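Protein in question kept in full:
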Amino acid sequence: MTKSKVVSAAQKQKDLEKFSKSLKNKTVEELLKLEQEIIAEGDTVNDTIAKTMFDLPTEKYEEVAKGIRYFLSKKTVQWQYTLAMATMYHFWTEKNPGKIPYATLDTTLRTLGEQEFTGIEEWEYVITINKFFEPLRIAYMGTTELAYDNASRHNAVMDELRLKDPSQANKDVEIKEVQA
């Protein structure tokens, strides 16, 4: 992580702390209204993320795609994840599609990131894959931060709401139970 990113992360933390402190003087009604505003912002963020596409590098694409398919094919998944895994595997064909949706990039990176690698051949594949994605790193991180920033603000509001109105503590659970 570069020094500027560390400063940015520290600033984001300070901003979140300042936001959280600003919630202390709000009434339950004000917090509920603010929560709805943040949820609406979250919908906008989700729409933005869903439409985000990244240009895939062309250099070493075939090698990287082969490595990704190799690692994905080693992954053991439960029944309900097979369609997603197969779809992701087929995205990484030998022909470069030129662009990659944020969701596909994010899922690929997270899936590879949770795996373990054995031996020099696999380690070198990982290094090649990491270098391939390096040009996308800053844009990818920025897009990811949009969701995290919104979620952090929402969590701060919910935490304060639960302190002021304990009946809000089970709000999420009740919604999930109704939907289940």
User: Anything to note?
Assistant: The radius of gyration is 20 Å. The longest helix spans residues 137-164.
